[in-house]
Amino acid sequence: MSRDIEDEIRDEKNPRPLDEDDIALLKTYGLGPYSAPIKKVEKEIKDLAKKINDLCGIKESDTGLAPPSQWDLVSDKQMMQEEQPLQVARCTKIISPNTEDAKYVINVKQIAKFVVGLGDKVSPTDIEEGMRVGVDRNKYQIQIPLPPKIDPSVTMMTVEEKPDVTYNDVGGCKEQIEKMREVCY
């Protein structure tokens, strides 16, 4: 009995290497019955999409703009003329919040303070006291909530992505420093 246990322990310490049949079995172990056909169809779809993109001349651009051949300037100009420009204001107070007839006190710089309502596309939960809002120029209704104003020079100083490099990674040269110490002493 103890002999069998000793043999098992010895086998665990020195496992035999996998042969080609074992490797093939491990590769197919997690695959379902449709894995191979699915992979084949996915590859065909990918190849067809690449071929279509090559024929259409679609390519990614750095600016995110479509190529000039796909621009529709007439409808873009019409849409720009239909859109009314908004003024920036600050919502200073909400009168009777959480009711249907809530009113908002806005301060339009250099003009005046107004008590206004919301536009059609704005939810009352989107507007808070002290936030910047976009108002139309006619009725001064709140059309959209705006993000807080940030100084452009401050945004240039913000870290967009924290690097994962440490001082040990940058420093390096340990071997060279040790060799220099050996030579000097």
UniProtKB/TrEMBL annotation:
Gene Ontology molecular-function annotations: ATP binding
Q: Where in the cell is it found?
A: Cytoplasm
Q: Does the record carry Magnesium as a key word?
A: no
Outline the extent of the 26S proteasome regulatory subunit 7-like OB domain.
79-147
Q: Which Gene Ontology cellular-component terms appear in the entry? A: cytoplasm
Primary site of residence: cytoplasm
Annotated keywords: ATP-binding, Cytoplasm, Nucleotide-binding
User: Which Pfam families would you find in this protein's record?
Assistant: OB_PRS7
Q: What InterPro entries is this protein classified in? A: 26S_Proteasome_ATPase, NA-bd_OB-fold, OB_PRS7
Q: What is this protein called?
A: 26S proteasome regulatory subunit 7-like OB domain-containing protein
Organism (species): Eruca vesicaria subsp. sativa (Garden rocket)
